Amino acid sequence: LKSRQGGTGMEESMERQPLYMSDFAPPKPVGQPKGVIQTFDRVKVVYIFSLVLFHQRMLTAPSHSFFLSDHLPYPHIDHGVECMLGLLLISGWLSSSTWKELPWEQHMKKKVARLMPPFWIAVVFTVVALAFEYQSWPQILQCGLEGLGLGGWNPTLMWYSFNRPLWFVSTLLAYHYVSPAFLRWIRKRRPPQLAALVFTLYLLRQCIALATLLIIQGVYSDISPYVRVIHLWSPTQVWVPFMGAMLEQITKRTALPSWVTATHLRACSNGLMLMLLVLTSLVPSTGYVMLDALIAYANLITGPFIIVLVPLLSCEQNFIYQLTCNTGPRVSQLFGSMLTLSYPLYLLHWPLALLLKRFGLVADDSWAAGVGSSATSIVLTAAADALLLGPCTASFAEWLNKGPQATPQAEATHEKPIAYPALETAANLSQLPSAELMRMGSTTAGASIGAGFIRRSSLVSLTTIPSVQDAILH
């Protein structure tokens, strides 16, 4: 209204600025890295801790399921794996949002230092479980593949693995091997091209799953005991982190309509989560084994909704954030500790449950067995993380990073630097009190600096400077 009545140039410039999903995110707590999305962290924590309980049906309590759909009065498809699609999408998203232009060796060092020490220790626990339950040589072969980070690429892993969750690391490592080139490539593509590629990879994933089921059908007359392989096999899942990385770029570079508000985003996020809760719990069986398998394990129905939900969750406008993040420090510390423990727990809970059952420390096939095994696995993982995994990871990272550190390629370029006359002034904005910033904003000089730095297309490269980032936040 002011601009229509002859307002200042800054007001007109501000009015024209595009609106992005990240603009709706609440302010970060003091000391929290800017790339952290708390909703993603909460989703990972809740899913992995719940997964430990759900897996007890396959470990210690086969006739006592903790999943709602197993207690419905009508035939239903298998549920419980849908959230894994979201977890893989989030992994790809975060790899893109935190990516830096590093040589491939340095990039892999960062990933290996974090992922591999807990993984190798989990393989040791798997070998111990195998030693007590050994039956045939394919089990040794599968364990060897898992030690090499290739376990997820064996289509028979579900019959011979003593630690099925390790397929996730196999899949994620395959993505990280090629992610530097891929992340560099997607930054040169337009959002519509990336959206088309996301859709293409979703269809490719369905086609691979369908082809796998058709092959199984040609071998076995009854395929129902074998259909779960399309959930565990890396060739059907490896595409998902790529989709997540492209979703991050699409969301980052796509402007929203000017009429969108935080209330709209909150309603969409919460509505989609409730819809997915229904789709992952109450969907009845279609009567066709192959179609049920695609719905249950290849996310034929839930996939598109999860793909839309992940970008919505990134702006923190949802009930998960409202319930768990706008709380006191004790709740935040609890979730922080659970997040630290979630990756080791995911890797260790399977062999730990097998060992607990082998030594008769949990009751056989009962509700108490499932709850007791889950609780004991959490306690043992916490102890192993404090005494073994944590120190080993820190020592391995220190050893791996010895020697000269490579500088990012962006700093090593020999391009002539561009001079920005307002850079020094803008960089010092973060040192000024809020009242002084408000006063400057009303002046012509302040307006030109503010409009210049808010316009992303003109000063994208400057936003990598911390002081400039703080100035933009102010």
- Strand count, sense and closure of the main sheet? none
Mean pLDDT, all residues? 81
Beta-strand content estimate = under 5%
The beta-strand count equals 0
Order of helices and strands: HHHHHHHHHHHHHHHHHHHHHHH
Low-pLDDT runs: 1-14, 406-474
Principal-axes geometry comes out as globular
Query: How many helix segments?
Result: 23
Distance between the termini: 24 Å
Instruction: Look at the helices and sheets and give the structural class.
Output: mainly alpha
Fraction of helical residues: 55-70%
Radius of gyration: 25 Å
Task: Describe what this molecule looks like in 3D.
- This protein is an all-alpha fold and 474 residues long.
- Helix content is 65%, strand content 0%.
- It contains 23 helices and no strands.
- It has helices at 9-16, 38-54, 56-59, 82-97, 104-133, 137-147, 157-160, 167-186, 191-219, 229-232, 234-237, 239-253, 262-279, 289-297, 302-313, 319-324, 329-358, 367-400, 409-412, 423-427, 434-441, 444-454, 466-473.
- Helix 9 packs antiparallel against helix 12 (239-253).
- The protein is globular, with a radius of gyration of 25 Å.
- The two termini are 24 Å apart.
- The model is unreliable at 1-14 and 406-474 (pLDDT under 50).
